[in-house]
Design brief:
Blueprint (H helix, E strand, L loop, with lengths): L1 H16 L6 H23 L4 E15 L3 E6 L6 E2 L4 E5 L4 H24 L3 H23 L3 H33 L5 H30 L3 H23 L3 H26 L2 E3 L4 E6 L6 E2 L3 E19 L11 E6 L7 E8 L4 E2 L13 E10 L10 E5 L7
Antiparallel strand pairs: 1-8, 1-13, 2-4, 2-7, 3-6, 4-5, 6-8, 8-12, 9-10, 9-13, 10-12, 11-12
Helix pairs in contact: 1-2, 3-8, 4-7, 5-6
Length: 399
């Protein structure tokens, strides 16, 4: 205080030398303000680089199988590092392999049926249908042409023979009839002559009818039937040559697609029997033993994606203007002193929140902070999930 009074006296005398007269209380206030400003400047200058703390974290992946079943083999333990594609555990297939074989058999049958329809009839089958058409055509031609002259001639010769037999029969009958009148012929001989005569007359009548039918030609009804038979045979040949209907082939193709879909579905289920790691991860939690039952689509193993580490921290609103998306900020971890890492800012929350309890002092609980996420760049093999990390913020805003 004496120094401050002395300073006030000196300042007052200097002001009086310049012709300025001021009360001592005003001089004291001015000097105190100057000293406070200087102290704040020194404190600000001596304040180090802003630092916020957080923890190294990794994305959690919870894997399981789309099919349920009984666990047959467990390949990993908690805390074990696994590479992408490494097996975690296997599930007993139960009846999936038998269903897969059945589906493949049905697929083969559907493909064979589709191939048969798409290929059409075989050459031998078409030749057989063509032969039937030719037979029908020949039959029609025969009926249209009618009997040949030779056939009519033969029928007439048969008629002449029948007429000759009739003359002979009549002659025998007349002879036996006269003998009977003279009582020289037996009754049996007369009866035989009567039968022979009747037979001869019938044969003549039949021969005459046959000649008449041949000379008249084929009936129109028979020709019409032959034409219909030929048309049917021709249509069957055209159908055989054109193959099966497009709708039938499309139906068979759809059957193949359906059978293939069943095979693919069971094949994917078989693939799901072996659960593998989707990334380079650390087994965080697994509580499976051979014989355990796991449900379909239920997470069974918890993994940490250690190849992609990041730091979650909270930036006080005082320093919010120092960081921007895409900035690369230095990182340090207590476990590895002297080693520097780099984190790229990939997320800054748009809404403020209260400082988390694990990152604040009781005096700071009323302050607002903004959550920030930084992807750790470069080599991260030595980092472990859960390590505490410090993020060094810029000293001043980016121009």
């Amino acid at each position: 205080m004496p120094c401050q009074v002395a300073l006030c006296d000196v300042a007052a005398r200097e002001m009086e030398g310049y012709g300025i007269v001021m009360p001592k209380i005003i001089v004291v206030v001015v000097i105190v303000a100057v000293l406070a400003t200087g102290w704040l400047y020194v404190q600000q200058s001596s304040r180090g680089q802003p630092v916020v703390s957080g923890f190294v974290e990794a994305d959690q992946v919870r894997v399981g199988s789309r099919v349920g079943g009984r666990v047959s083999v467990v390949h990993v333990e908690e805390g074990q590092r696994v590479a992408e594609g490494d097996r975690l555990f296997d599930i007993d297939p139960f009846d999936l392999r038998e269903r897969f074989a059945e589906a493949n058999s049905l697929l083969a049958s559907a493909k064979a049926d589709h191939h048969r329809l798409a290929s059409g009839l075989r050459t031998e089958e078409i030749t057989q249908v063509q032969a039937r058409r030719d037979q029908a055509a020949a039959s029609l031609s025969k009926m249209q042409a009618g009997p040949r002259p030779g056939e009519i001639k033969i029928a007439r010769e048969k008629l002449h023979m029948a007429e000759a037999n009739l003359e002979l029969g009549e002659s025998d009958y007349q002879r036996v009839e006269k003998l009977r009148e003279d009582e020289s012929a037996a009754q049996t001989e007369f009866d035989r002559a009567v039968r022979t005569l009747k037979r001869a007359r019938a044969e003549v009548a039949s021969a005459r009818e046959e000649v008449a039918l041949l000379e008249e030609g084929t009936r129109e009804e028979d020709i019409a039937l032959a034409r219909a038979t030929l048309a049917e045979a021709a249509a069957a040949l055209a159908l055989a040559e054109s193959g099966y209907r497009t709708e039938e082939i499309a139906h068979a193709e759809a059957q193949v697609a359906a059978a293939q879909a069943r095979v693919d579905a069971i094949e994917r289920q078989l693939a799901e029997l072996t659960v593998v790691s989707p990334c380079d991860c650390l087994v965080e939690a697994i509580e499976l033993r051979p014989g355990d039952l796991v449900a379909a689509n239920a997470p069974s193993v918890s993994l940490l994606e250690v190849g992609n580490l990041w730091v979650r921290t909270y930036v006080p609103q005082l320093y919010l203007g120092l960081v921007h998306l895409g900035d690369d900020l230095p990182l340090t971890v207590d476990t590895l002193p002297g080693e520097a890492f780099v984190g790229r800012v990939v997320f800054i929350a748009s809404d403020g929140e209260f400082t988390p309890r694990n990152l604040q002092t009781p005096e700071e609980r009323g302050k607002q902070v903004f959550r920030m996420k930084l992807d750790v760049q470069g080599e991260v093999q030595r980092l472990r999930v859960g390590m505490s990390a410090d993020v060094l913020l810029p000293r001043k805003p980016r121009p």
